[in-house]
User: Which sequence fits this backbone?
């Protein structure tokens, strides 16, 4: 049984709504958040369609977050490339 805790170690904005995410086990995923953002009905999420706001993400405690946890995703989902 693998008990390794996977964390996000680095994230780089690519283009549009894509972010390249680096994980602690050396896996790398490029995630496109556009469909999630455009289909959201929540104003706290929709505001991240503004690219400057979208680009304001940070890594905190191994998680990729926006604002004061306005938007964050389960690490496993990002690891699998699913949002």
Assistant:
């Amino acid at each position: 049984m693998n008990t390794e805790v996977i964390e996000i170690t680095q994230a780089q904005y690519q283009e549009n709504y894509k972010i390249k995410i680096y994980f602690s086990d050396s896996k790398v995923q490029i995630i496109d958040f556009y469909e999630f953002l455009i289909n959201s009905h929540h104003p706290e999420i929709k505001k991240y369609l503004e690219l400057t706001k979208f680009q304001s993400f940070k890594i905190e405690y191994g998680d990729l977050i926006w604002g004061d946890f306005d938007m964050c995703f389960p690490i496993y989902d990002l690891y699998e490339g699913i949002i």
